Amino acid sequence: MLKAEGLGVRYGRLIALSDVDLIARPGEILAVIGANGSGKSSLLKALAGFVPSSGSITLEALTGTAPHIGYMPQDIGVRAALSVVETVLLGRLKQLHYRVGEADLAAAGSALERLGIAHLATRPLGALSGGQRQLVFLAQVMASDPQFLFLDEPVSALDIRNQLQVMETVRSLTREHGLTTLTILHDLNLAARFADRIAVLKEGRLLACAAPREALSQKTLEQAFSIEAALGEGVEGHMLIEALRPVG
Fold first, then answer.
1. Which residue intervals define the domain ABC transporter in the entry (predicted)?
2. CA–CA separation, 70 vs 81, rounded Å?
């Protein structure tokens, strides 16, 4: 379980987050949404311990061991000379003990297979498209066997098929392994379809944190994004959001 109370982040005089209270549970996907500059990336970085913060953060692993966070940032440096499988194995650094074992290769292979990119295993990372590299870095995080999965815009460079495949894979892994998953998404319909709960940020403050139909009300969408939206239902029963026009 993850619990944040009174969480705040400042960069000099800039207040990126202010007094955020948040709970995320094992087996649950919590999507974080908000307009540009609303504090989404700062929230994930603070929870992962990558930026100084105020307030309290509690991470409790189901196994009773020290919590292991798998973090995929929005901007990732590319080591072009490495192969795809070598890049994924970097996610196993804590387990490698100066050599690559069968378990490490199996974890890397499984992650590549689940994301549909096993055929790229021997390709140089620098020869891949931006979307393919994004899948490789997600495989790297998956291969690390995390208990907490923090993903900053994991589908931003992907076509619609791969967006669905990645989100379905993330949901399956979250359920199967009891992961506590937080993911930043810009597509409101992906958030409504795949998230158990949605946290809505505006200017560093939490407007809502609830199930999709409660969090994505017309009032909250207008407050967070300055849009008028029509709300409906898809053929599979999940919520649909259509942005109609800007307001204000």
1. 2-228
2. 23
Query: Phi/psi of residue 236, each to 5°?
Result: -95, 5
Q: Express each pLDDT in 53-106 by its tens digit.
A: 999 999 987 666 668 899 999 877 767 789 999 999 998 876 655 578 888 999
For the chain, the farthest-separated pair of C-alpha atoms sits apart, in whole angstroms, at: 58
Taking the C-alpha atoms of residue 86 and residue 79, their distance in angstroms, rounded to an integer, is 10
Token couple for 16: 């990126």
Distance CA 130, CA 156 (A): 10
The closest of 150, 128, 124 to 138, measured between CA atoms, is: 150
Q: What is the pLDDT of residues 31-60, one digit of tens each?
A: 999 999 999 999 999 999 999 999 999 998
Using CA atoms, how far apart are residues 36 and 41, in angstroms rounded to an integer? Answer: 10
Q: Return the amino acid letter for 123.
A: R
pTM of the predicted model, to two decimals? Answer: 0.92
184-208, pLDDT tens digit by residue?
999 999 999 999 999 999 999 999 9
By the 10 Å C-beta count (0-12 exposed, 13-18 middle, 19+ buried), 248 is classed as: exposed
DSSP string for residues in 47-74: HHTSS--EEEEEE--TTSS---EEEE-S
Q: Which residue's structure tokens are 């907490």? A: 148
